[in-house]
Amino acid sequence: MTESPSFGATPSGRFFIKMHGLQNHFVITDARAKAYLPSDEEIIRVCDQKNGVGADQLVIIQPPTNNDHASAFIRILNVDGREVEACGNATRCVAWLLMEEAGRDEITLETLAGLIECRKTGDQEVSCAMGQVNMNWQDVPLAEERDTCHVHLEHVPLIDGVALNVGNPHVVFFADDMDAIDLESLAPGIQKDALFPDEVNVGVAEMQSSDHMKLKVFERGAGMTTACGSGACAAVYAARARGLTDKKKMTVSMPAGDMGVEIREDDNVVMTGPVAYCFSGFF
Question: Does residue 209 contact residue 246 with C-beta atoms inside 8 Å?
Answer without folding.
Answer: no
